[in-house]
Amino acid sequence: MKLKTLLKLSVLELIRFRKITSFLIFNFTLGLVGFFLLQIFQQSLSAQTAEKAQVVLGGDISINARRAFSEAEIKTWEAEIPFTEKTHFYSLFSMLRTKTDARLTSVGVFDSNYPLYGKFKLSNQGFSSDKARVWVDPEIQEILELKLADLVDIGEAQFEYSGTIVEDPSRLFRGAGFAPRVLIHSNYLAASQLIKPGSTFSENWIYKLPPKQNIAAIKNKVEKIIKDPVVQIESVADSEQDSNRVLKYFTDYLGLVALVALGLCFLCGSYLLQWTFQTKKKSIAIFKTLGLSDRKILAIYLLQSLIIAVVSCLLCILFVRLVLPGMQSLVTNQFQLPIELSVDLLSLIIISLVGIMGPLLMTVPQILQIFELQALELFQNASIDTRRNKLYYFWLAFSLALFWALSVWQSHSVKVASGFVGALVFLIILFSYLNRFILFLLEKSAARFSWLTRYAIKGLTRRAASTSLVFTTMSLATLVLSLLPHLKSSILSEIRPQQTSQIPQLFLFDIQPEQVSPLQKISENVLAAKLKFSPLVRSRILKINDQPYERIVQDTGFQTRESENEARFRNRGVNLTYSDTLQPSEVLVAGTFSGVRTDQNELPQISLEEKYAERVGVKIGDLMTFDVQGTEMQAQVSSLRQVRWTSFQPNFFILFPKGVLEDAPQIFLTSVSQEMNPVKKFQQEVVQKFKNVSVIDVSKTIQNSLKYIDQMSLGLQMMAWLAVSVGLFVFIILLNTQIRERLQEMNLVQILGATEAQIRKAIFIQFFVLMSISIASGILLGLIAAKLLLTFLFNISTVYDWQYLVFLAGLIVPISFLAIYFGLKPLQKLNPMDLIRQS
Amino acid sequence: MLKIFFFTTLLISQIAFAKKIVFLGDSLTEGYGVAQEAAFPQLIQKKIKADKLDWTVISAGSSGSTSASTLSRLKWVTKDKPEIVFILMGSNDGLRGLKVEETEKNLGQALQWAKENKQRVILGQLFVPPNYGKNYEKKFSEIFPRLAKKYKVTLAPFLLEKVAGKPTLNQADGIHPNEKGHLIVADSIYAFLKKEL
Question: What is the pTM of this model?
C-alpha cells in the first residue's frame, strides 16, 4: 500500500472521528499556546534582565579599582577587549559648598559617552560639557536651596547648578550611599583638583562589546592579564546576578509555570489519546480482519498523530502570532512592563519540535497495543490493559529523557530540571498508589451503602486503570492550580514588604546610646510614632571551637583574588546585636533562642543567620570567641535563623540575647517608615540636634525598585492565570470524557429499569467521590510541594495564599457541576437503539 | 616545685601590674580587613615585648565609629585603669563630611573628661583625603593641634603619613592599610610612642 493510500485512510479516519479529532487538536493547541506564550514571556524577561544588567553596569564589561590606572595597564587590557565603545569615569567623595553651607556628596565624574546603555534622566537638560555644570540629587537641592544657575564649589572649581538627577540607572536595585550623588563632566576634573596624591577615588573603565561576544571568556583573559587583586573586573553577568536576584525569582517561576502547563496538557493529551484509542478499536479490528498488516495500521495511526500534531502546531503559531500584538499592548499599556515580546527562530524550532514530537511520543503506548492485540479481542470492546514490554519501558525512558532535556533548556539548570522531572514522576507514582489505596478502601466499605452507591463505587473500581489516570491527572491539575499562587505569594512576600509601614523612607545610624531617648521624644512629638532602635556592637571573631578564625597573611601575599576576598571577609570584624525577641523578618530554622540570659554562669546562647553560619563553618553547639573592643567574650551557638534581607529593616548576622552586651560600646540604628509624617520636619530636627547622626533618604531608591517589582508581579499574576486556565481546561476535558465513557452503560441501566434520577444520582456519586479525593489530594500535595519548592529551590520562606484556595474551591466546584450537568445532557436523548447500533 | 610557684607568681604579677595603653579608635585601630595580630596595636605590643618594656597594649577599635562615641567609649576603656589612652578618633567624621565644629566639640568633651579624671591621653593627628576640598581639609586638620594645646595633651603625628594614597600599602578600598601598611603604621607610631612609655 502506497503512502498516498495510507494518508488517505488516515485522513478519512480523522474525518470520521471529527469530534474527537477536533478535541485532540484543540487540546494540543491549547497546551502549546500556553507553553509558547509563557516561554516567550520568560525569554523576553530574561532579555530584559540582561539589558537591565547592562544599564546597571553602564556597559558589557567594567574594570575598576580604588586607585589610578597607568596608560600601560589600560593599553594591555584594551588589546584583549574587542570593544566598539568605551567610557571612563571616576567616583569619589567631596564637599559641595555654597556661599553659606557645605555638604558631603558622592561625585560622579563622567565623560560624554557614559552610560553606554540607558541614559541619565536629568530635570533640566541633558548631560553636557558646554560649561562647568553640576546636577545633584533632589535632597541636596532641597537642603542647600539651590536654584538654576547658582554657583557651587567642588574641590577647587566652580560649577553651575543645572538641575536634579531624576533617574540614575546605575542605582536601580543598589542601596543608597551615605552621601547624595552629584554629576560633573570629566572635562572639569583637572580644574577641580579632586584627584591628586592621597585622594581616595575609584577609577572605572567600561566597554561596550559587539553582539554575540563571549563576555565570560573576555573577562577571563583580562583577569589573567591584570594581576593586581585590588582591580575588580565585572561583566554584565556579574551585574545581573548582583542586582537582579529579584528578577531571577520571576524567570525561574515562569520557567516552572511553562513546564507545568505543558506537562499537564501532555498528560491530558496522553489520556485523550488512550481514550480515543479505545473508541477506535473497532476500526483497528476491521483493518486487521481485512488483512492490513500491523505495520500499516501503525503507519495509519502514526500519520494521524502527525497530522494532529502538525495542525496543532500550526494553529498554535498562528494563534500566538495573532495575539502577540494584543499581549504586547497589554503588557506595555496595562502592566507598564518594559518588556518587548518577540518570537525568535530558536523558540519556533523548539515549539515545533515539542508540538510534533509530543503527540507522536504519546501515541507509542497505543501503537504497542496494536502489535499485541487480536482482532477478536478488539471486537469485544472490552477494556484491555496496556502490556508493559521492553519497548514500552524504552519509550517511557525516552520520553522522560526528552522532557528532562526540555526542562533543562527551559530552566537553564540541570539541577532544577532534574528536580522538576523527578518530582513529577514521583507525584504520578504517588497519585497512582494513593488512588489504588482509596479504591481499595471504597471497595471494602461499599457493602455498607445502598445499591445505588455500591453501583457508583463499582463504576470506579471496575475501571481501575481509567480511574487511576483520571485521578492522577485531576490531582495534578488541582496541584498546579493550588501550587502556583503559593509560589507567587511567597516570592512577592520575599521581595516586597506586605505593609507600607515596613517600607522605610529614612535610615538613621551612628546614634549614640545617650541620643536614643531624646530621638524617641522627637519622633513621638513630630511623627507621633515610636521608633524601634537596633543596637550595633562592633567585634571580631577570634576563635571558633578554640581554633583561630582569622586569616594570617603570609609574606608572599595573596595568590588569588578569591583568597584575598576570603581573608578580608574573615578579618573584617562583625556587627553584633542583641534582643529578647526575633524580628518579624526572622524565622528560627534550627535550635532555640531564649531571648534573655538568665544564668550568668552559663555561656551566652546566640543565634546566627543560617547562610552566614554556613559560610563561617559554624553549627549549633559550637563555641565562638569574640573580641568586643578589647574584651574577649565566649558564646555558644544555640540557634540558626532565616532572615528576609529584603524586609528593608535593620538585620544582623549574629544575635545575642539580652543581658550580655548592654554595657559594651555600641551605637543604634533605626528607620522611619513612609507612613510616618511629616518626615521632612523630623529629618530637619534630627540633623539640627544630632549632627553626628547620619540620615539617609532611601525612599527614591526603594520606590524605584518597588515600582519595578510591582510591574513584574502583575506580569507574574497574568502568567499564573494563564497556567491556571490551562489546568481548568484539563479538568473540564477529563470530566467530560469520563461522562462520555459511561453513557453507553447508563443507557443499558436505563433499559434495565433504572430511572433517570437514579442514573444521575449514581453518576453524581461517582464524580463526587472522584473529584473530592482528587481535589483534596491535589490541594494537600500542592501545599507540601510549595513548601518543598520554596525551601529547597527558591530558598525562601513559604507564605500560603489561603484566600486563593477558598477562591479556587469556589471556582472548581461550580465549574465541575456545570461540566457534569452539560456532560449528562446526552442522557436525555439516549435511545435503546443506540446501544444496539453500537453493539 | 618552688621554681614553678615563683615563675607563676612572677608571670601573674607581670600581667596584673603591667602598665596598660589603650588605642581608642575606629576601623584603622580595629585593623579592618587584616587579622587582629597583623593590626598595628598588636604589632606595637610585639615591639614593646622585644624592647622588654612592661606595657600591655589594648586595642579598642570600632569600625565606622565617629567622634560622637569618644566620651562614652573613653569611660568604658578607662574602667580598666590604663596608664595611657591613645585617641585616634575623627576619621569617619571627616569621611562623612560632618561639621568640623561638631568633631571638635565631641573630642573636646572627651579630653575635658580625661582631664577631670586625671587620665593621661595622647591625641592622634588625622587628615581627610585631598578630594574633600582644600577648605574642609584645612579646617579638619586644624582641630587636633588646637585641642592638644587647649587640653594640654600630647599630639601624635598622623598615623597614615607614610601609607595614605599608596596602593601597595592599602586594601582594595584604598582607605584601610593592608598587612604591609600596618607594619609601617606600627613603626611610625612606635617611634613616637617609645618616648612616651
Answer: 0.66
User: How is A232-256 classified by DSSP, letter by letter?
Assistant: EEEEHHHHHHHH-HHHHHHHHHHHH
CA distance A813 to B92: 65
What is the per-residue pLDDT for A101? Answer: 83
The domain ranges of chain A are 1-58+245-412, 59-244, 445-500+699-839, 530-675
- C-alpha dihedral, A212 to A215 to A217 to A219, nearest 10°: 160
| Distance from C-alpha of A27 to C-alpha of A22, rounded to nearest angstrom | 8
Mean pLDDT lowest among A439-453, A545-559, B21-35: A545-559
Q: Which residues of B carry out catalysis?
A: 27, 173, 176
User: Is the pLDDT confidence value at A242 over 60?
Assistant: no
For chain B, how big is the Rg over CA atoms in Å?
Answer: 17
Which chain A positions have a beta carbon within 8 Å of B96's beta carbon?
A: 104, 178-179, 694
Three-class SS state of A298? helix
CB-CB under 8 Å, B129 with A692: no
d(CA B123, CA B144): 7
Q: Determine if the peptide bond prior to A826 is cis (ω within 30°).
A: no
Q: How far, in Å, are A176, A504, A523, B71 from residue A698 at the CA level?
A: 6, 7, 18, 30
Q: What share of chain A is helix, strand, coil (3-state, %, to 5)?
A: 60, 15, 25
Q: A556 - beta bridge partners? A: none
- Min distance B191 CA to chain A CA atoms (Å): 23
Where do the structural domains in chain B lie, given as residue ranges? Answer: 19-193
Instruction: Give the ranges where A496-556 is alpha helix by DSSP (H).
Output: 513-522
Contact check, Cβ <8 Å, B62/A538: yes
- The phi, psi pair for A135, rounded to 5°, reads -115, 140
User: From the CA of A689, how many Å to the nearest CA of chain B?
Assistant: 11
pLDDT at A159 over 90: yes
Chain B residue with minimum CA distance to A154: B133
Which one is predicted more confidently, A13 or B123? B123
Rounded to two decimals, the ipTM of the complex is 0.81
Query: In B, which residues are within 8 Å of A193 by CB distance?
Result: 130
| Residue B102 clears pLDDT 70, i.e. is over it | yes
DSSP state letter for A174 = S
**Which of B35, B65, B136 has the CB atom closest to A95's CB atom?**
B136
Q: For residues A436 and A439, what is the distance between their CA atoms, to the nearest angstrom? A: 5
B19-193 under CATH 3.40.50.1110, yes or no: yes
Q: Give B113-129 as a DSSP string.
A: HHHHTT-EEEEE-----
Find, in chain A, the residue whose alpha carbon is nearest to that of B23: A630
Cβ of B32 and A664 within 8 Å?
Answer: no
